[in-house]
Model the fold of this input.
Amino acid sequence: MYPSTICSYISIWAVREQNRLWHELSGCRQAKLFLHELDYSRARFALNLPRKDLRILVGLLTGLVDLNRHLHIMGLRQDSVCPLCQEEEDTTALFIAQCSAIMFFHPEEHSQRLHSFIRDVKQHPLVSPHKVCQSF
Ligand SMILES: [Zn+2]
Done:
């Protein structure tokens, strides 16, 4: 057996093992919504981002961003409900794709809000995504 074949088997085993551990891991509920399995191209993309952009991406993927669910867990908000729709827990998934209040916006307008949010977070790390939504 060639060494390259052995390396290939080890690499395949390592990817399977990382995916298995990721799926068996309890917790990381929000990150698991967005990251289903190991993806080297996405990892490479993320690691090539400027530090500020990477921080925003990680915050959105993990839910550790200035949304009410996270702020409630930290004891900084009374409740975890979305301030726009008042219907569901305020999470990244809700903010990006599921909030009924945001769904009424035109897709172009919604895209502008996300871009504004990212721009504002770069300038002021503690800006709330909802402040951006409410400013339109
Ligand atoms: Zn909402």
Q: What stands out?
A: The first helix runs from residue 3 to 24. The pocket of zinc ion is lined by residues 82, 84-85, 94, 99, 101 (CB under 6 Å). The two ends are 63 Å apart (CA to CA).
